[in-house]
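@channel sequence for tomorrow's demo:
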Amino acid sequence: MVKLNGISDNPGAVKERTRVGRGIGSGKGKTGGRGVKGQTSRSGVAIKGFEGGQMPIHRRLPKRGFNNIFAKDFNEVNLGRIQEAIDAGKIDATQTITNEVLAAAGIVSKLRDGVRILGVGELKAKVAFSVAGASKSAAAAIEKAGGSLTVIAAKVAEA
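structure tokens (generated this afternoon):
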């Protein structure tokens, strides 16, 4: 019979934390793994990109690219995932599938700028979609299943 006080993890599964600066016998005592003397043996040192006065690599290389502040951040959902939710009874196939419906069903956790449907998996149910976008393969699969697809403009985040 298994008792709570007899349960233990496999040997070596949990590694002990190294306690630095706790005596010579620990192997990490005295200087605590910092070597001897000099700037880096002291506290408060952060010379990550320093190369001994030579121009550091992050300053020798050119800057490249930019962040598009108007880019939309979509939740991407596959058709197979939606079909699973319909089979499980989390989504009512008779109602229009929107961003809010998918969030309520737990398919998307965080509401972003909208939902984009992707075509991985098989859609058997006849469903109406009202989403921010869909791939060509997803649109074809929705039409094939007898459903409809309405592409709505993605909501613009307030500045």
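heads up for whoever presents: Residues 79-88 form the longest helix (10 residues).
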